[in-house]
Amino acid sequence: MLAFVRIYFFVFGLLTIAGGVMGFVKAKSKPSLVAGGIAGGLLLAAGVLLGTENAQAGLVLAILVCIALAGRFVPGFLKTKKLMPAGMMAALSVIGVVLSGLLFAQAH
Fold first, then answer.
1. Deepest of 25, 70, 84, 105, by most Cβ within 10 A of its Cβ?
2. Using one digit for the tens of pLDDT, what is the confidence trace for 51-98?
3. Three-class SS state of 103
């Protein structure tokens, strides 16, 4: 399961970075660019850490970033009902929280 979760966070991180770039290109939103870059970079770092002896730190980092992203995008999706970007990011964030929780439970 660890290998799958690592791949998930790599893909999620790349999609988050791409979403930040898209937000900047379409709406000239610098906050989207910065937030997408930071959150995506942290998700990539979590994926890397999950493959080291610091896997616990990677798991904590991943769950914190996913909770923060879910806190931002779930209410936005519920308000707007727009699948892009709020719906996709809300779903990916919630999946990330669930996968992190399952991996944490498996490790303990």
1. 70
2. 999 999 999 999 999 999 999 999 999 999 999 999 999 999 999 999
3. helix
* C-alpha neighbours within 13 Å on the C-beta side of residue 99: 25
Termini Cα distance of the chain: 14
Peptide bond preceding 31 in cis form (omega within 30 of 0)? no
Phi-psi region of 43 (alpha: psi -120 to 50; beta: other; left: phi over 0): alpha
> How far apart are alpha carbons 13 and 7 in whole angstroms?
10
Helix/strand/coil (H, E, C) string of 16-78? Answer: HHHHHHHHHHHHCCHHHHHHHHHHHHHHHHHHHHCCCCCHHHHHHHHHHHHHHHHHHHHHHHH
